[in-house]
Amino acid sequence: MVLFCPFPAVKEVWQVAARSYMRKLVEQANLHFIVTGKVKETGQIVTAMKVVALHTPKLSVQVSGLNKVNEEMTATVDFTNPFSFELEHIYIRMEGPGILSPVFKYYGLIPGGSRVTWAENFTPRRPGTTRMIATLDCAALRQVHGQVQLDVLP
């Protein structure tokens, strides 16, 4: 609890360590800071809230080979766990409309600071502009995705 005298502008700084909230994050990856105060003389309650959106780690997607119908290509997904703790029960999914049906790979554990790379061969079935999209999902980390656009020639 912090007590303030009337009228001065006061700035309080709190450090919030990632280890205190990382395992409690849910789908949105936001932190909500709520401050509540009460005016002693009137009993009035004053509340303010600040939402901080957390940055998600990068999931890199690259394609190589000839961008041509019926020519084999390779899609590569790369992820580095930027945290000091292990990620467990991780699914990485990859798909590309007209070029790769949805596929996934399961990783039981990705230690903190380590990197995983997954390559998948595919053969484009139709020409045009499309995207290769990848997502990473595990209980401790949500909404991690990456994509790359490519033009498939006839």
* Average pLDDT, all residues: 88
* Count of distinct strands: 9
- Figure out the total of helices: 0
What overall geometry do the principal axes of the alpha carbons give?
elongated
CA-to-CA gap between the ends?
68 Å
- Structural class, by secondary structure, is mainly beta
Rg, alpha carbons = 23 Å
Query: What percent of residues are in strands?
Result: over 45%
The CATH architecture classification of the largest domain is Sandwich
CATH topology call of the largest domain: Immunoglobulin-like
Strand order of the largest sheet: 6-5-8-9
Overall number of domains: 2
Unreliable spans are none
Measured as a percent range, the helix fraction is under 10%
Q: Assign the CATH class of the largest domain.
A: Mainly Beta
Kindly report the name of the CATH homologous superfamily of the largest domain. Answer: Immunoglobulins
Give a quick account of the main beta sheet: strands, pairing sense, barrel closure. Answer: 4 strands, antiparallel
SSE pattern, N- to C-terminal:
EEEEEEEEE
Family: Belongs to the transglutaminase superfamily. Transglutaminase family.
Protein name: Transglutaminase C-terminal domain-containing protein
GO molecular function, one term: protein-glutamine gamma-glutamyltransferase activity
GO biological process, one term: blood coagulation, fibrin clot formation
How does this structure look, described?
The protein folds into two domains: 18-53, no CATH class; 59-152, Immunoglobulins (Immunoglobulin-like). The chain contains no helices and nine strands. It has a four-stranded antiparallel sheet with strand order 6-5-8-9, with no helix packed on it. Strands 3-4-7 form a three-stranded antiparallel sheet, with no helix packed on it. The chain is 0% helix and 55% strand. Belongs to the transglutaminase superfamily. Transglutaminase family. InterPro entries: Ig-like_fold, Transglutaminase, Transglutaminase_C_sf. One of its GO terms (biological process) is blood coagulation, fibrin clot formation.
